Amino acid sequence: MTRQLFAEPSHDCPLCPRLADFRTAWRVREPGWFNGPVPTFLPPEGEDAVRFLIVGLAPGLRGANRTGRPFTGDYAGELLYDTLIRFGFARGRFEARPDDSLELIGTAITNAVRCVPPENKPVGLEIATCRAFLTPTIARFQNLEAILTLGTIAHQSTVRALGKRIADYPFRHGASQSVGAVRLFSSYHCSRYNTNTGRLTTEMFVGVFEEVARFLARQHAEMS
Ligand code: SF4
Asked: Membrane spanning segments where (predicted)?
């Protein structure tokens, strides 16, 4: 319980004034939307079941900011959840709403920045400020073995949250490196922009998950 308290901001977190103002404006405009810092999505078994953490950039305005669940309600979630189900990291049916039947298996999903930023672009200070939640989020998972970061910002903030220098752990799509006790995998973000421009294809994204699944299977074999 204590670990969870430190890792989750309040619905009215005031630490980034620009993002708090943006959130407030959207609460007026769309009172039925979530419009708050989006909580980490956990498997039903809870945080001690988590071996794999996915770190995205920030909620999309009409995606997670609307629905309150990471990668839910806009395009990025379609590719992500399809892939998670395909590799056994999730089960059920993804219907782009938080009350669908989708459940994570041994996996959690969070964002480097918990509040929606204007034009999907958080500034450096906001990324650094929200690391106050990313750091304890990573620490709350006592059985964590692998992290997948989606995009450069999520990668760099995760490296810093792990107490390392980003110069020592540069972002490269498809790469993985050991950072302390965890293996850090990196992918381009599964945004519509990246897939539309061909920067990230489904095959490239699936390839990263193949690596993660292989690594976790190896870890499991060594432990049993
Ligand atoms: S982005 Fe993070 S630190 Fe900034 S206001 Fe939202 S929850 Fe708070």
From this structure: none
